[in-house]
Amino acid sequence: MPTPPLAGGTAGPAALRPLIDTVLTALHDGAALRDGPLPAGGPDTVTPRTRTATHPLIPGHGTGPHHALRALVTALTEGAADPAHPHCAAHLHTPPLALAAAADLAASALNPSMDSWDQAPAATALEADLTTALATEIYPHAPSPDAVITTGGTEANQLALLLARERHGPVQTVCATTTHHSIARAAWLLGLPEPVAVPAPGGTMDLAALDEALTTLHRPHLVIATAGTTDTGAIDPLDAIADLCTTHGAELHIDAAYGGPLLFSPTHRTLLHGLHRAHSVTLDLHKLGWQPASAGLFAVPERHHLTPLHHHAPYLNADDDTEAGLPDLLGRSLRTTRRPDALKIAVTLQALGRTGLADLIDRTLATAHHLADLITKTPTLDLHDRPTISTVLFRPTGADDHTVATLRRTLLNRGHAVLGRAHAEGRLWLKATLLNPHTTPEDLQALIDLVTTTTEDLARTTTPTTPRTEGDTPR
């Protein structure tokens, strides 16, 4: 077998072109075989079928690039939960834009590593400009806002707690019961006290309970507010929380991984009023930004807030190189080798502009409200609440939690729909997290019909029948 060609250089595109054609064909064929939002049959069917199609993963003699691509990409696509399907709506799992995926291909082919300038000369400049621009969206009046690219909300939230610890020592984190699980995990990883969780009636942080907690606790505080919870999409009262933080001398971090991109919508950005008052903000563009994962951001109002992240490794940022003008990148992440995720984000922002991104956001939120309307008009379904962003909770009327959980798994096993689950007001709900701007009213009605007919199927198969005895009268 000849030496395989490389993706970079002037010869790389010619080598990639036929391989990309094979990949695109496999993506199409796999989706056609699946013919739905996810494969039917559950793990007991999908796992052995995938293993059969991809075995052996390490053969004695290679099968060649086209055969390997065709076999594995087809198998992975056939067995995928496809967020581009309108009935795949369980999680903050976005269908990426084609242009962002194309940009990601370029990033893979060029393979810059964002840990030293000599591995990523142009990508360094692009990332610096992009992070400054996005930080300025969050902190429009700050003199020197900045941000770093992260793998997502979990890494960004960990940075928030890490930097607060570096400023104040073992800070006490205070959050709501609806706060993302990554906050508790970050406190554990960093050796910080377990977070104090205050109630969140109605899905948002209780201000009186927060005031009491900040009054009672006697150590530096870091309050975590959320702009878009994973369960309901609720947004905490950011301005009022910032006021309490100012009163008590606490710092504020806002996890806006889900809701942050609302900043780009003139219609919906008022939901984030007070965001700029945070000491740090988490943002994810692989959620309501339609980027391939990962595309996270951690933003601060002043560049020097990131100084504690500085790290020295002479082979990557030697002092004399830095003094000679080569940018020092090790303080831009906790990671060393990392991808140029800024490229796909920058391509998307430039291609769509503010109006194009706002249109995607507004379409998506309007779709969520339309689903809520359909649920309200369906007598056999209950709506939890109107959506704040694009998450809609609902359940069959009169169903218990076991029935709701069984209904969800039945839809999964049949390959009909991917819906999430969330607890609210002491009950289990089906969760539709709508992130597909191409979803139509017909798609939503079909989803409602699937839920109602499957509920009826379950009722028929689980209703106990009592044998008739002599003297019984048929009804």
TrEMBL record:
Region (Disordered): 456-475
Matching Pfam families: Pyridoxal_deC
Keywords carried by this UniProt record: Aminotransferase, Decarboxylase, Lyase, Pyridoxal phosphate, Transferase
Spans traversing the lipid bilayer: none
N6-(pyridoxal phosphate)lysine modification, residue list: K287
GO molecular function, one term: aromatic-L-amino-acid decarboxylase activity
Requisite cofactors: pyridoxal 5'-phosphate
Comp. bias intervals (Low complexity): 456-468
Family, similarity comment: Belongs to the group II decarboxylase family.
Name under which the protein is recorded: Aspartate aminotransferase family protein
Native source organism of the sequence: Kitasatospora albolonga
Lineage, uppermost ranks: Bacteria, Bacillati, Actinomycetota, Actinomycetes, Kitasatosporales
